[in-house]
Specification:
- The complex is a heterodimer of chains A (579) and B (344).
- With 579 residues, chain A is mainly β.
- In chain A, 8% of the residues lie in helices and 60% in strands.
- Chain A has a 26-stranded antiparallel beta barrel.
- In chain A, a hairpin with a 7-residue loop joins strand 14 and strand 15.
- Chain A starts with 8 loop residues before the first helix and ends with a strand.
- Chain B has helices at 2-29, 41-47, 56-62, 64-72, 75-79, 92-95, 99-103, 105-110, 123-131, 140-144, 147-150, 172-186, 204-211, 213-218, 242-246, 273-276, 302-307; strands at residues 223-224, 270-271, 291-292, 334-335.
- A two-stranded antiparallel sheet of chain B has the order 1-3. Chain B has a two-stranded antiparallel ribbon with strand order 2-4.
- Chains A and B meet through helix 2, strand 4, strand 5, strand 6 and strand 8 of A and helix 1, helix 3, helix 4, helix 5 and helix 10 of B.
């Protein structure tokens, strides 16, 4: 009988609730003890004086500490009210997250500077009880020899479709525990569990899945080297029973040795076992890396990696062995820096019919030049190229290779100006080509922007992005051509920050995006425009409390499928208090 | 034939000679007027004796603002541990022995015994100070291999022990950049998001966006990873601290994407080669991870995506919909039941 490995949502919530309770209890207990036991415990921890110190000097150093530092607020509570005033497609509006609606707790933070001598912690709750929430906590005990971190989050969202679909959600709980058992040796463990229920428009099937992840590491100084031994266990459970449950167990050993201050060596071995539907797959990886500081301004780096894969699950082509090597040279001058490098990858690829072994080879070269053209103008120029040779013969109807055999990348960055008026410009170019099929895809990205500090109270910024794409294929000879599926787009951003008085601040930003797409299939999400204005007015009371008003008229238009469009005026009034 | 071999031998010898000559020049000539002060902090700490240190009270007398900000930082907890050796306690655990500085600052500077000012040091040296203790984050050799170290960034390019205190060398332009980034992200929906790490100068998106402007701008697209909404941060995918990142990665042989998108982790009975990461960029062959103007963060829209590799199929079944929307090739990432990826 198959064991029930699922972690129910209820159980996950219970665990997380226990975790939060324990943390609260710990924080409360520590805070209470501090108040009872040590009225002066909040004094700076720097009071600890070295044993070999002169007692008179000790007295001297206590004098300045009598000046009390300003009181740091321990608690912060923020509440608010929000409305969307939404008309149109709610799915598109909530595609990535769900903003608050109605009255809500925006946040609660408990952040004591020091609980007890040698203890520290903080605790944050953001929108607990809302559709989307986040909570995290951290405790450091015994001067950081023991540390604990935990977080819990949930997000609700909708697939951006026209038909009604159930609300999707993703929730995740994470915990990290670390214990320093010796001055230079520690053990740590990470645990995370996530659950995703993602619903799509039919005929696409829903995803209802859980993942659980454990990782344990013991690491520290052993002799002159530093060793790290780790084990991790990853589990995947598909509750729709379409995909098989998967368990990945991994052992890794990493050693770092710095025989001289100018030379560092690292070696690692990694063994993975992937169990799926009673079939065991195995992957072994060995990697070596080095960094050699040849001179004060010169570094040479070299890496080698070997992967060996045994995947009985896979019935199509797969990589059996892979060797990769890369090296880089970094040279610095007073105002300029140059990097050049190369990489080589050789793969033993077993063809899908198991009758042939291909050994494709990938060569790559890269370079980067950065420096100052003048005192206020910085230039960065980088580029890379990759070439694939010994191309494999495919088993598809058309046996020409399906891989890009030529990749190019060039980027130019210019950044500079005066402190009150500065700007930047970036041009990025990529080209992917498959010579056997006479096809390529080329893209150019242009980004230009700048900041203007009008005076100490008023500043403005603007940015413009343009993406230009093109592509061709010798095989597409009738409409629609490859070019017709490759849209261009532009994004414009404007913003202003204005301190009206010492207490009143106005922040506003405007984003506008649009695409230029032939869209031969007349599909949704292809020809659209969005205009988003967000304005924040903030009033800060002398005691540090704040009132915040956000007004955000947003507009989204799909020019092909109008049912995807929406307009919303998000209104949010919130107030925060610190004490 | 012989002449060809001779040519190859000649070129090879010339390359070796030039490389050796260049290496020799680098070793002998060394530094060419570095922009910042070059001090090996490890040597400073190694050579310091107990009597070279002073009390922290002496530092607080002049540097009150720094002392107060330090108290708020988690560092104050670690550096007040009485079990730690004297060179890992208080202000001097990072700034080095300060007695000479307290007695006569100018004389100390002249004799090279002044305290270590991390913001004035070369990036490599400044990072070495942090990595004395943060060996769990990474060793210096691991740091030097990262792209950030190669681009001459140091730990204090992103982190600050003295948060809220303006560093002397932080120009107004730098501050403006952070302000600018704040405004960029501020335009999006205000939903539940975690607090930025307390040691960071700003939230991850804002910090990374200071240099990676193109990547930040991609998050403004209609389709994106939900970073502006606070559901993810840059370090969820990027190995800024490789040692830490490894502890939360599912598999180093596959792309980082499978940590969250576990349903496409495989291995599948019938794999789709790009997902298999055998030859190429893995997931990035079809997707733009930050954001895209195409649905599902695709590089190319709809059937055009499949058509860029499967060129002979690009017009099959036209004018149907995309290859997967109509319920045909629904298992584009891999299938356990169908060789043509028609069923999951």
């Amino acid at each position: 009988m198959k064991p029930n490995l699922y972690i129910s949502r209820q159980r996950m919530r219970t665990w997380c609730a226990w975790m939060i309770c324990l943390l609260l209890l710990g924080l409360g207990r520590a805070s209470y003890s501090q108040e009872r036991a040590a009225p002066d415990a909040e004094k700076p921890s720097r009071q600890i004086v070295r044993q070999n110190q002169d007692p008179q000097e000790e007295k001297k150093e206590e004098e300045p500490q009598e000046e009390k530092p300003p009181v740091v607020p321990k608690y912060q509570v923020e509440v608010g009210y929000a409305s969307w005033d939404l008309s149109g497609n709610e799915n598109k509006f909530r595609q990535y997250a769900t903003p608050p609606q109605g009255f809500f707790l925006k946040g609660f933070r408990y952040n004591p500077v020091s609980l007890l001598h040698g203890f520290r912690g903080d605790y944050n709750l953001i929108r607990l009880g809302g559709d989307d929430y986040f909570a995290d906590s951290r405790m450091l005990m015994f001067f950081g020899d023991i540390s604990f971190k935990g977080s819990l989050r949930r997000n609700r969202f909708l697939d951006d479709v026209i038909t009604p679909v159930p609300v999707s959600d993703r929730q995740e709980g994470k915990a990290l525990f670390k214990f320093k058992i010796a001055p230079e040796f520690a053990v740590s463990t990470v645990y995370s569990m996530s659950e995703e229920n993602h619903f799509f428009q039919p005929p696409r099937e829903a995803l209802r899945q859980r993942t659980r992840y454990w990782d344990m590491v013991a690491e520290g100084k052993v002799g002159e080297a530093r060793l790290s031994l780790g084990f991790s266990d990853f589990r995947y459970f598909d509750r729709t029973l379409v995909l098989p449950d998967t368990a990945i167990k991994r052992w890794r050993l990493v050693g770092v040795w710095e025989p001289f201050t100018t030379l560092g060596l690292e070696a690692s071995y990694l063994s993975q076992e992937i169990n799926q539907a009673a079939v065991s797959n195995h992957i072994d990886t060995i990697s070596l890396a080095s960094n050699w500081t040849v001179g004060p301004n010169t570094d040479i780096q070299m890496n080698y990696r070997h992967d060996s894969l045994n995947l009985p699950t896979v019935q199509t082509s797969f990589m059996r062995e892979q060797h990769s090597f890369s090296s880089r040279l970094v040279q610095r001058w007073s105002r300029w820096q140059l990097q050049v490098g190369m990489n080589y990858r050789e793969t033993e690829r077993i063809r899908g019919d198991r009758l042939f072994l291909n050994i494709p080879k990938l060569w790559g070269f890269e370079g980067r030049l950065a420096g100052r053209l003048s005192r206020n103008l910085k230039l960065t120029l980088r580029g890379s190229t990759q070439h694939l040779s010994s191309l494999p013969l495919m088993l598809t109807t058309d046996t020409r290779s399906l891989y890009w055999n030529d990749r190019r990348f060039v980027q130019l960055k210019l950044d500079g100006g005066s402190p009150s008026l500065n700007g930047y410009f970036q041009w990025t170019h990529r080209r992917l080509a498959n010579d056997l099929r006479a096809s390529d895809v080329t893209s150019h990205f242009l980004t230009a922007g700048g900041n203007w500090e009008v005076n100490s109270r008023l500043s403005a910024f603007a940015e413009y992005n343009y993406e230009f794409w093109s592509g061709k294929s010798a095989d597409s000879t009738v409409f629609p051509f490859q070019e017709n599926y490759i849209p261009n787009s532009r994004v414009t951003v404007l913003g202003v920050s204005w301190s009206l008085t010492d207490q009143v601040f106005l922040l506003a930003s405007y984003t506008d995006y649009t695409t230029d797409h032939d869209n031969p299939l007349r599909e949704k999400d292809s020809n659209y425009a969005g205009r988003f204005l967000t304005m924040n007015l903030r009033y800060r009371f002398p005691a540090g409390h704040e009132l915040n008003l956000m007004v955000a008229p947003w507009l989204y238009r799909d020019r092909i499928v109008d049912n995807m469009s929406y307009t919303a005026t998000v209104l949010m009034l919130s107030g925060s208090a610190r004490f | 034939m012989f002449r060809k071999k001779l040519w190859r031998l000649g070129i090879f010898s010339l390359a070796i000679t030039l490389t050796l000559a260049w290496l020799g020049t680098v070793c002998v000539i060394g530094s060419v007027t570095p922009q910042n002060r070059s001090v090996n902090p490890l040597v400073v700490f190694e050579q310091a004796k107990a009597e070279d240190y002073t009390s922290d009270g002496a530092c607080v007398t002049c540097h009150q603002a720094y002392a107060q900000s330090f108290e708020k930082s988690p560092h104050s907890l670690y550096s007040s541990n009485p079990k730690e050796p004297y060179d890992r306690q208080g202000c001097q655990s990072c700034h080095g022995p300060g007695k000479a500085h307290v007695e006569d600052r100018e004389q100390a500077a002249k004799s090279g015994k002044d305290v270590l000012g991390l913001s004035k040091m070369k990036s490599k040296d400044a990072s070495a100070v942090c990595l004395r203790c943060h060996t769990d984050t990474m060793k210096s050799t691991q740091w030097h291999r990262t792209a950030h170290a190669r681009a001459d960034l140091s730990c204090n390019s992103c982190h600050s022990v003295h948060l809220g205190v303006e560093h002397e060398n932080e120009t107004a332009a730098e501050k403006a950049k952070i302000k600018d980034a704040v405004k960029i992200i501020n335009g999006f929906a205000n939903v539940a998001r975690p607090e930025p790490n307390k040691m960071l100068l700003a939230s991850e998106a804002l910090l990374c966006g200071k240099c990676h402007k193109k990547e930040l701008s991609e998050f403004r697209h209609n389709f994106r990873h939900p970073l502006p909404e606070g559901r993810i941060v840059c370090s969820d995918c990027h190995d800024v601290h490789p040692v830490r990142a490894e502890q939360t990665r599912v598999s180093p042989n596959k792309s980082a994407c499978i940590t969250c998108h576990a349903d496409i982790a495989g291995p599948f009975v019938f794999e789709h080669d790009p997902v298999n990461s055998t030859l190429g960029d893995g997931c990035n062959d079809c997707h733009r991870p930050h954001g895209s103007h195409n649905p599902a963060l695709l590089t190319t829209a709809s059937r055009g995506l499949c058509g860029q590799c499967h060129t002979e199929q690009s017009n099959t079944h036209f004018p149907g919909q995309s290859c997967w929307n109509t319920g045909c090739h629904v298992a584009v990432h891999g299938s356990n039941t169908d060789r043509k990826l028609l069923r999951r």
